[in-house]
Amino acid sequence: EVQLQQSGPELRRPGSSVKLSCKASGYSITDYLMHWVKHRPEHGLEWIGWIDPEDGETKYAQKFQSKATLTADTSSNTAYMQLSSLTSEDTATYFCARAYSGRFAYWGQGTLVTVSS
Amino acid sequence: DTVLTQSPALAVSPGERVTISCRASESVSTLMHWYQQKPGQQPKLLIYKASNLASGVPARFSGSGSGTDFTFTIDPVEADDIATYYCHQSWNSPPTFGGGTKLELK
């Protein structure tokens, strides 16, 4: 059974950074692109970017180019997303999602990041 | 970027038929997908490639369309279907989501 297990909620100060994890089970992460999506209830879903864990290639949405950094550790079958220079606008739930033919059939449960002083 | 436009909210009663539209600012061929998201949960894939039912999804859900105009239908609506529904295109880069349509009970 395919599962994506994300790390727990985070509370950070403005200006700091945070690294979220997404551990895959039931398949090898090198077989599929891993995408990350931001959710704020008043803004809906926003695509952040993807990583190809097989070779580390990444692609980001323009607005997240200097905000997010995607990495993967094939030895632990885990994908990561680091968010830097956090502001209140980064307060959101972040999801990892496995892509297949462009669609996201499998999602992690989400990680809530709260940025507050 | 491809902008996907959905109506923000619809009020429905159980047993009714409801249709949600999604209009793309440019052609996305048939690479349009639909998700259901309930509060506090991850999105769930319901329809992929415009009209294909995802595994385990009831046949009450359906989708159609191509190019720039797509529709998503629930017939009949059940109380458990109250959620926000998003369209998502993967034809053009970057992939984009619609703003979501929140289904509410009348």
TL;DR?
The complex is a heterodimer of chains A (117) and B (106). Chain A has 117 residues and is mainly β.
| Order of helical and strand elements of chain A | EEEEEEEEEEE
Number of helices of chain A: 0
Distance between the termini of chain B: 35 Å
Structural class of chain B: mainly beta
Describe the structure.
The complex is a heterodimer of chains A (117) and B (106). With 117 residues, chain A is mainly beta. The radius of gyration of chain A is 13 Å and the shape is globular. In chain A, the strands form 2 sheets. In chain A, strands 2, 4, 5, 6, 9, 10 and 11 form a 7-stranded mixed sheet that branches. A 4-stranded antiparallel sheet of chain A has the order 1-3-8-7, with no helix packed on it. Chain A starts with a strand and ends with a strand. Chain A has no helices and 11 strands. With 106 residues, chain B is mainly beta. Chain B contains no helices and 11 strands. In chain B, the strands form 2 sheets. In chain B, strands 2, 4, 5, 6, 9, 10 and 11 form a 7-stranded mixed sheet that branches. Chain B is globular, with a radius of gyration of 13 Å. Chain B starts with a strand and ends with a strand. The relative contact order of chain B is 0.35. The mean pLDDT of chain B is 97. At the A-B interface, strand 4, strand 5, strand 9 and strand 10 of A face strand 4, strand 5, strand 9 and strand 10 of B.
